[in-house]
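Intended use. Records such as the Fasciclin domain-containing protein entry shown here are meant for training and evaluating sequence-to-structure methods. They are not intended to support clinical decisions.
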Amino acid sequence: MKKTQSFPYLLRLILIVAIAGLVYNCTDEKYKESTDETLNITEFLRANDEYSDFLEILKITGYDSFMNTYGTYTLFLPNNEAVAAYMADLGVSSLSEIPLEDLQELAKLHILDQVINTTTFTDGKIATPSLQGQFLITGARNANGTSNITVNKDARIIASNIEVGNGLIHVLDKVLRVADQTLAETLEADPSLSLFTEAAKATGWFEKLDQPVTYNSDSIPSYLTVLAQKNEVFAEAGLDNLEDLKARYSHLNDPTNPADSLNLFVAYRILPGLNYMADLAVTPAVTTKAPLEVITVKLAVDTLLLNEETFNGVLEKGVVVNRPQSDITASNGVVHLVNENFFIKKRLPAPVYFDVADQPEFRQLSSVFRVPGNSVYLKKEELSLVDWPDSQSLGYVAAAIGDGAFLSQAWHGDVIDMVRFRNGFLDPITFDTPVIIKGQYKVWVSYRSNGRSSAATEVRFDGVALPRLINFREGGNTDLPERVLESQGYKRHIEPYTNRFNCRLVGIINVETTGRHKITLEAIQDSSNGNTWIDVIEFRPIDMDQLYPKFEAGGDGLIYQ
C-alpha cells in the first residue's frame, strides 16, 4: 500500500536536503568533524586562540563556567575578526567598555540549549529559541559563485558541526545582533516603509507596535506580527501618500476609530503572536487585529500566499509574501513584507459542500483516488487535516460501479470509511473544514447507513456541541414529501436517491471568522461493530434552499430543481 507523508514533514525534508547540500558542497567553508570529546565549549575556546575574544565575553559575563559544564548546547561562535568588527562598529577598543547587560544579552543570543546540526536547518527560524529568547533565522546565500549558510540573514557560517563534549559549535564571520528595536521603530527606520508607517501613526497602531512585550495571567506574551508593504507596492495600487489612503479607505473620515476602514486596513495586517514564515507555512488561517477577520495562508512550492482560495469554482489569486525580505525580528515581534496591496475580503455567506473523502493525501494517490474499486487506509500521522486519538487507520473507498453495498451512489462515488467507530477506534475524529465565510449556516451530515454502526453520534463545531445526534443505523425516508422531511431534520441529498443513504441536520452554527474550522464527530454509544461511511458535510447559509442543489449520485455534478 502506498503511503504519503504529512505536509509539514515533506516541507521539512525538502528544506533539509537543500540546506544539507550547501553544507557539504560549499567550497570556502571549513568543516571539523570532531575534536577531543573531553573538551567542553569553554575548554575548546581556550585551546583555540582564534576564538579568544568570545571567550573573553563569556568570562566578563560569567557564562564561561556554565558553558564548561555538562549539557547539550549549540554555540554560534563569532571568530576574533567578527568580534573586532563588532567593537569597531560600537566605537570601543575594549570589551570592558560595553555595558555588562548588553554583553550578557549578546552572549545568550549566540547559545541554544539544544544540539542543532546544520543538516536540520530549514529556510527560516530555528525551532529552538536562543537563551536570550529571540529566534535565529537560517538561510542560504550565493556570493561570488559560492553558496553559504547564513544566520539572521547576514552572518555566514564558515565552519560547522564542530563536536565538543557538551554540544556543537558553528563558527560565524559576524557577531549576531540582538533585535532591540520595537516593531514601530523597525518600520520607521526603513525609508521604503514610510507610507505604511504613516498609516500606522494615523490610525493609532504605531503606539501599540511600540510597546514592550508583556505577559498575561496565562504567561502568554504580547508578541505581534506585522504584514507591511513598501511604498512601491502602494504606488502600484495608485496610493502615493497618506491622503490617497484616507480618500480610498477612511470612510468615516476618522482613522483612529476602530470601525474606520483605514484603521481596519492596518489592523488586518497585524497578527497576534510571533509568526515567522515557518509558522505561517503550517497554519491554514491566522487571526488578525481586525475584529473577527482572518487571513488564510497557503504554501505553493516555496511561496507563501495570503487569501488564495477557490470560491464557487473561481480561483481568487493570493498575495505573495516577499520571502527574502521577511522574518525581520523586532524586540516585540516580527515583520514580513508583502508584494501586493490587499484589503479585507468582504463576502456574503456561501455554501460549502465538504466531501470529507477529498483529503490531500488521498488525492495524491492517483491510482486510488476516485478510481472505482480501489481503497486505501492511512494512519493519522499520514493525514494533515484529520485527527483522532488512537492508532487506527482511516479509510478511503472509491466504490466499484454498481457495488452491492451502494457505496457507489455517494457523491463522487467515494466515502470515508471508519471501521468500528467507537471509543478507542477513530473516536472522536476531527476534520479541518474548507474555508467557510462568516455567517449563519445549517449543518447537514450525509452517510451510508449501517445497522452495526453508532446509534448516537455527537457533532461539534469548533468544540461546541450541536443539538441533534446522528444515528448512523437510520436509513433514508422515501415516503414523506421532501419539505415535510426537511422540517423533521432530514433530507434526500443525492439524486437518484436510495434509502441506503441518509442526511441529518445536526444544527445551526454561527461562523464568526472567515477561515478554516474544526468539525468533530464522537460516538457517545460504544456499540459500533461495523463500518461508518460518511459522504458529505454541508454548510448551507440559513436563508438558502436546503434541498437544492442536490448531489449527483455516483457523479461529480450538482442537480438544481
